[in-house]
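Q&A log
Question type: sequence-to-structure
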Amino acid sequence: GSVVVRAPMRMPNRQIQAFVALHGDWIARMRAKMQQAAADGQSVLTGDEIAALRAQAAADFAARVRTFGAQMGISVNRIAIRCQKSRWGSCSSAGNVNFNLLLMLAPPFVRDYVVVHELCHRREMNHSPRFWSLVAQVLPEYQTAVQWLLDNGAALMARRPMTL
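Response status: OK
Response body:
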């Protein structure tokens, strides 16, 4: 339930405090969501649970990338499954995509969105209007998944062990 601020060693304390104050509302909302997740009995995942989710995610995301990649005419170089602190997915210019194994705790339509989002980065390595147009061509109601992640993402991230 605590907040940890990481900053460069030479950053003045007043600048760090100003940043925290500026983002205080967001910090409070995220802490409340994490506390609610804990109150709802959503405990931190064990090592065995992480391993099981990683195996499920490898198969699940490979299938989704194959399906949507074929539909979109997009290929990827490598798929990696990680237990990331703050990202649901990423795509490199070399065509490597990463997916957060915590997405296995999300509904399938959310996983579809994250896959399509990362595949669209193979065409547009930004979040320009052209990028979002590509996403909408494949998933016209993608904003439902975006909203689901905004509403539930902090609770999923709260289940990640701090020692990873």
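Response note: The chain has a mean pLDDT of 91.
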